[in-house]
Each structure stands twice: as C-alpha cells, then as structure tokens.
Design goal:
Length: 333
C-alpha cells in the first residue's frame, strides 16, 4: 500500500492556483508560435548558407515544438484559457505544429489520468511509455517472451527510435480509438488534410529536400524529448505502483509521479511539466501556475520524489515494478 503524504492536502489548497489567466495564456500562445515561426523562417533562410546551420537551428525549433505541445496539453485539460472554446481553438492550432490530433490525443490522455500507476489498469497502448510488468510477471515469462519484452522496452527503441515514428506516422491513424468515438477519429482525418495542404504548399515553395531538412529533424528531436519527459516522471526507481483497491488519486500523484527539477531554460521549453506531481493532483492548474503552487505548498509536497536531470537520464533503466521491495528495478542480469 502506498505511504500517505506527510502533510494533508485539501482541494481548496490546490483550487487556489487553478484559475486560468487570459493574459498569461494569450502571451504564452503568441510568444511560442511567434518564436517557432521565426525559427522556421531562419532555418529555411539558413539553407542558402549551410545545411549544418539549419540542422543546428533544429534544436531550438524542437524545444519550441515541445513548448507548443505542452500548451496543447493544457488546452486538452481546459486549463490554459478561461474559455473552453478558446482552449479547443488553440489546441487545434497547436496540432498543426505538433502533428498530434487534438481531440483524439485529449481522449487518450484522459485515460492516462484515470489509471496511471494502477497495477490492475495496465495495458493501455497509449501508456506504453509509462506502463511496466512486475518483476514476478517478468520472471514467469518464457525465455523467448523475456527476450521480446526486453527488446521492446530497450531505451534505444522506446526513447530514440519509436517517438518520431509515433508523432510522424502513428498519429496519422486513429489507433486504439473505437469507431463510436467519431469526434476523436474525425480530428485525426481533419488534421491529416490540413497537414497535407500545409506541406504541399511548403514543398511547392521550397522543394521537398528543403522541407525535409527543416521539418523532420526538429520534429524528431521534439518527439524524443517529449516522450522522455513524460516517461521518466512515471517510471523511476522510487515510483510507487499499487493494486486498484489500494490506489488513490492523491497518493498516486504524490508517490507515483515525480518533481523533475529542470534547468531554467528547460523549464521554459517544457512549460513546467517537471512539476508533474502537481499536474496529476490537479490537472486543471495551468502550467504558468504550477511553480507558484509548488512554492506555496512546500510542506504538503515534501514527500514527493525529486529527480535531478542526472536522475532522469538514469530513469529509463528502471523497467519493472518489484512488489517485494516496493520500487522500480532494472531488468535482472
């Protein structure tokens, strides 16, 4: 059973930080899109100077894609803007940059918020990067199944190779979405049509080679970074899992996710997603209020696992939940 938090958090404590600000949301949206567009224009212009300069600019461009994805994420929780309609409009606009269908991904992500770190609710395909087997389940597998599981969960595969495939290719189809979810499936097809038109125009203007050199590296780096940020905050050594009868929303947030302390620049590009424990406690808190919430409730949050950047780079090696020791462990030798 999960350990209780050392201090009691009440809904009113968290609700105080939940009110969205139209000004803050508008500034975040305008600045992120403005900087991204400027960066992309610079990348196309740099092709006339050096391909390597364009590729170097893919790094800040990818950071801006991550930030725009985090704004889309807030819109999915109706937390960025005070208006639900504005959240939907801006969320859909973000999808043109992130290549992630807004309504479709919002539904998948809502399932994550209902089941994370619950041993009895594993197996959701969209949670592949935060899911795991227990050590006992892994040891019970046949040798061939153990090999396949290790290969399919190797950090090189899930943190380097798969993320670009997911964002660039897999999100073009409504996988894991029932036919009855018409709005979600329609969002996939509408985004595909919009992307086809946008990239057709870019190719007509600059040529397919230039478009590939500008768009693909930035998107690939952003996908790798985004998946890593998400995964390491759910699957680290001290992350706690529990069975359904022991699972509770607040304890899973405080002990099943982490406070990833990132450098200031990375905090900006990731829109404070490192404060993941607060996000899971209260998904309606906008990204621009998360730090204030952490600072204002330090005593109540002191039981949360704090990860440094160094810890986060080691986190992908923790692949199995050991029920005996109540911690995540690497694959056995």
């Amino acid at each position: 059973m999960l350990n209780p938090p050392t201090e009691t958090l009440t809904p009113s404590m968290l609700r105080a930080y939940q009110t969205p600000s139209l000004g803050a949301a508008a500034w975040q949206t305008a600045s992120a899109f403005g900087l991204y567009i400027a960066c992309v224009v610079a990348m196309y212009a740099a092709l006339h100077v050096s391909v390597w300069l364009t590729l170097a600019l893919a790094v800040p461009a990818s950071g801006l894609i991550v930030r725009i994805f985090m704004l889309q994420h807030d819109c999915g929780h109706n937390s960025l803007f005070p208006s639900r309609r504005l959240n939907k409009i801006v969320g859909a606009a973000c999808s043109l940059v992130t290549l992630t269908p807004f309504a479709y991904w919002r539904r998948l992500h809502a399932r994550h918020h209902k089941s994370w770190n619950d041993l009895d609710k594993r197996g959701i395909p969209a949670d592949f990067f935060s899911d795991c087997l227990t050590l006992a389940e892994y040891n019970a597998l046949r040798p061939s199944a153990k090999f396949l599981y290790r290969v399919s969960h190797h950090p090189v595969l899930i943190h380097l190779l798969l993320p670009p495939v997911i964002f660039i290719l897999l999100y073009r189809v409504p996988f894991d979405t029932p036919a009855s979810f018409r709005r979600e499936r329609r969002s996939v097809y509408l985004l595909n049509m919009a992307l086809a038109g946008m990239f057709a125009l870019l190719i007509a203007l600059f040529g397919i080679r230039s478009v590939a050199l500008v768009q693909l590296p930035a998107m690939a780096i952003a996908a790798i970074t985004g998946i890593w940020l998400f995964a390491v905050q759910h699957r680290f050594e001290d992350a706690q899992w529990s069975k359904a009868e022991d699972w509770s929303f607040s304890q899973a947030a405080l002990h099943g996710t982490s406070y990833l302390k990132l450098p200031l620049v990375m905090r900006w590009f990731s829109a404070n997603i490192g404060l993941h424990h607060i996000h899971h406690l209260r998904p309606g808190i906008p990204n621009y209020c998360l730090q204030a919430c952490q600072d204002g409730l330090v005593k109540e949050m002191k039981s949360v696992t704090v990860l440094t950047l160094r810890d986060a780079f080691k986190a992908p090696s923790y692949a199995l939940w050991d029920e005996a020791s109540n911690r995540m462990v690497p694959f056995p030798p």
